[in-house]
Automatic annotation (TrEMBL):
This is N-acetyltransferase domain-containing protein. One of its GO terms (biological process) is aminoglycoside antibiotic catabolic process. Residues 5-149 form the N-acetyltransferase domain. GO terms for molecular function: aminoglycoside N-acetyltransferase activity. PANTHER family: N-ACETYLTRANSFERASE EIS (PTHR37817). It holds the Pfam family Acetyltransf_9. The lineage of its organism: Bacteria, Bacillati, Bacillota, Bacilli, Bacillales. SUPFAM superfamilies: Acyl-CoA N-acyltransferases (Nat) (SSF55729), SCP-like (SSF55718). It comes from Paenibacillus agaridevorans. It comes from the Bacteria.
């Protein structure tokens, strides 16, 4: 008898079945209290939860969180793909691929022009158009390797909750590409519930909060969850505070943006550090994303022909005319549907760039330059055309201090 296969929303009435699959797939066990907290988070945080049903059984599932991210200082609606899981008996039947395509269509409909995810395997999600967009530095320091303690004009103050942290975080996050714009529910369910964490802020001499530290101490390890500083004064003060724990710890661990220059502060820079590939990004709606994107203003407009490959999202694939005006505002005309004129012949070929949707995300998020993508054969076109486009892309480091 042929089985009925369908994709539908995963309702709250199937929460227990969904959590059973999640705990099995990701190999963890939650207590009753943790399950109730997870239920509250699912009900409170905006998201679309999808499942592939075989007959009436959940075969595979995925969640798309309604999030916002900073790109070049501007916020974009972002679909955070999470919790993708399948029972073993339903694997290798294409169910996850169907879920991903369904999720992309739903994201496009909701105006989520870009999507992020944390991959179990980078190669798997590359097949569906996602590409790595950020990494982080992982540090491990011994107590005698910490930055020297300094006297600061302000003061470190212990706090509860997150209210005093919010504005500091947003100012910091807006400096990077791909950091979340956190709303109150994110702080409540993702940050404020971190067990056994302590929080301190740094107030400068004018009593203004310029940085904060979320950390824990257990088993002789000081683990920094977040160290957010708006200036050097706050950084020096908070590192001096961390160093005050030297008698009770054997090591300090933390993650930082790849442009972090901690080693410049150290008497001995030979510490343990590692660069770790982290999240992936995908442009969901090419036109919607590009026409929101804040390109760098220029003395004259730039006109480039883009030949985009996107095997999963047909609405993104084709030949397009990208026009960036003097203010940095872009329009994207679809040549394959007759929206652009004068794009054939020698002029079109001279200004042509061929690129896949994943590599384009790397380029526009400023994770890779046009020259770097050209070196890895991820972008094709004349060096002049690629360089002219590169000059209109704002330079920002990518960083994501969150996980989902």
């Amino acid at each position: 008898m042929e089985q009925e296969v369908r994709i539908e929303r995963l309702g709250s009435d199937r929460f227990d079945e969904s959590m059973e699959l999640s705990q099995f797939a990701f190999q963890y066990v939650r207590s009753e209290q943790e399950l109730e907290a997870a239920r509250e988070r699912v009900e409170d945080q905006p998201s679309d939860r999808w499942a592939v049903y075989v007959d009436d059984a959940i075969a595979a599932q995925a969640t798309v969180l309604e999030l916002h991210t900073y790109i070049a200082g501007k916020t974009f609606a972002m679909g955070g793909l999470a919790g993708v899981a399948t029972w073993p008996e339903y694997r290798r039947q294409g169910f996850v691929g169907k879920l991903l395509l369904h999720s992309l269509e739903a994201m496009k409909e909701k105006g989520q022009t870009i999507s992020f995810l944390h991959p179990f395997e980078f190669g798997f999600y590359r097949k569906f158009g996602w590409e790595i967009y950020t990494e982080y530095k992982s540090y491990t320091l011994l107590p005698n390797q910490l930055p020297p303690r300094l006297v600061s004009p302000g003061r470190v103050e212990r706090v509860n909750g997150y209210e005093l942290l919010y504005e500091v975080y947003e100012s910091y996050a807006a400096r990077y590409n791909g950091s979340l714009k956190r709303d109150e529910k994110w702080w409540k369910h993702r940050i404020n519930v971190q067990n056994q964490t302590k929080r301190v802020i740094y107030r400068d001499g004018a009593d203004s909060v310029q940085g904060y530290l979320i950390y824990s101490v257990a088993n002789k390890e000081l683990k920094i969850k977040e160290l957010i500083c708006l200036n050097d004064e706050a950084r020096d003060a908070l590192w001096s505070f961390i160093a005050q724990h030297d008698s009770m710890i054997d090591k300090v661990t933390l993650q930082a943006p790849v442009d972090d220059q901690l080693i410049d502060l150290l008497p001995n820079p030979r510490i343990k550090q590692e660069v770790v590939p982290y999240f992936m990004a995908r442009i969901v709606d090419l036109r919607g994303f590009v026409e929101q994107y804040p390109f760098v203003p220029g003395e004259e407009s730039l006109r480039v022909t883009l030949e985009i490959t996107d095997k999963q999202a047909s609405w993104n694939e084709g030949t397009f005319e990208l026009v960036i005006d003097e203010t940095g505002q872009a329009t994207l005309n679809d040549a394959t549907r007759g929206e652009a004129e004068g794009m054939v012949g020698e002029q079109s070929e001279k200004g042509l760039i061929r690129i896949g949707i994943g590599a384009l995300a790397m380029l526009l998020l400023s994770y890779r330059t046009g020259a770097e993508l050209s070196g890895s054969k991820r972008i094709h076109g004349s060096a002049d055309t690629i360089n002219r486009l590169q000059a209109r892309i704002p330079e920002r480091t990518t960083y994501l201090p969150d996980y989902f």
